[in-house]
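Figure 6 in text form: structure in, sequence out.
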């Protein structure tokens, strides 16, 4: 057998013997065992890189926390076994929204009332939420230390003083929390899209404005304008691609 495994601390620990070398590797089996910073680092490497063998090695290095030189000593088929195991973890079809989690002994909570979001919170979040390079900054807007707990799992969080306050801390946020927050915003955006389109389609005054705009510009009519607007809004809301099977 290429390796044997046992379950320990929710991780698979494998021992690989190759050229008289014994290497113990902890392979994450759940997204909560992956840090946001690890995922960001791998995305940077994978971007515009089509060398599958190299990406397989970097995947093992990044998510299993071992040196690249040690990965190079592992048998090729064992690397494929490990990356296949990691791939299954990333190919989860749904991600649960997690509104509270602990990091470094501190409990962080999601913004309790999005409708009460300040202008500063909104503009910062709008700048960061779609960019994985800055996702730790987006997380620093969405999650802050819980300062007070109330009845029925209610809570208050620390006042927002800019994403820089906790952006470095959020690099260590578990990936299941990050994915859950992103999917939450995807669905929230879809609901906003549906509401916006319903409002536009049922508002005669808006349709008259669109119709007049098309007449002034030799356009194709209100229907075409509505379809174009729908396509534009849908382009603004895209579910991030978490799958790494092509690696």
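Output sequence:
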């Amino acid at each position: 057998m290429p390796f044997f495994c046992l379950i320990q601390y929710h991780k698979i620990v494998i021992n690989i013997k190759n050229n008289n070398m014994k290497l113990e590797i902890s392979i994450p089996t759940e997204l909560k065992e992956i840090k946001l910073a690890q995922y960001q680092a791998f995305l940077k490497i994978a971007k515009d890189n089509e060398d599958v063998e190299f990406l397989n090695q970097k995947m093992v290095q990044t998510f299993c926390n071992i040196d690249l030189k040690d990965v190079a000593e592992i048998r090729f088929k064992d690397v494929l076994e490990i990356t296949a195991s990691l791939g299954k973890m990333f190919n989860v079809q749904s991600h649960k929204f997690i509104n509270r989690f602990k990091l470094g002994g501190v409990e962080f909570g999601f913004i309790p009332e999005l409708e009460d979001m300040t202008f500063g919170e909104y503009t910062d979040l709008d700048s960061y939420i779609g960019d994985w390079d800055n996702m730790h900054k987006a997380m620093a807007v969405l999650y802050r230390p819980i300062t007070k707990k109330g009845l029925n799992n209610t809570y208050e969080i620390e006042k927002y003083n800019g994403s820089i306050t906790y952006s470095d801390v959020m690099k260590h946020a578990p990936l299941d929390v990050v994915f859950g927050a992103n999917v939450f915003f995807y669905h929230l955006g879809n609901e906003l899209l549906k509401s916006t389109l319903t409002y536009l389609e049922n508002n005669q005054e808006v349709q008259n404005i669109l119709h007049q705009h098309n007449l002034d510009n030799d356009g194709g009519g209100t229907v075409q304008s509505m379809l174009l607007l729908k396509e534009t809004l849908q382009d603004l809301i895209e579910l991030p691609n978490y799958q790494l099977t092509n690696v």
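Caption detail: The radius of gyration is 23 Å.
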